[in-house]
Amino acid sequence: MHELSIALNIVDGVLEELDRQKSGHVEAVHLRLGRLSGVDKDALSFSYGVACEGTPLANSRLLIEDVEVAIFCPVCGVERPTRSFPVLICANCGALGERVLRGEELEITAMELVT
Ligand SMILES: [Zn+2]
Description:
About 30% of the residues lie in helices and about 30% in strands. With about 120 residues, the chain is α+β, with helices and mostly antiparallel strands. The strands form 2 sheets. It has a 3-stranded mixed beta sheet with strand order 2-1-6, with helices on one face. It is elongated. The structure holds zinc ion.
């Protein structure tokens, strides 16, 4: 399962940070997740719980912030949202997006540690 390997990666990253901080317990992990990341949010939440079992992250919360997709529209000349997948069309004028500016994120933005 794709999401489980991602969850394990997140847990690994947090454990490394715990090591550096000499902190023993994690309350919550904040994650930014783009809609184009290909990750299913519910599956990731579930997998995170599984991946945390038996680690200092057990019972911590994974707080996922959705990142909407934005493209650069060559017609509008600015960043625009898009709601069409997989073809990324400007929500304003309907032109094909030139490149993706946001929406591919999968990154830990913050951790709440208890010392
Ligand atoms: Zn446009």
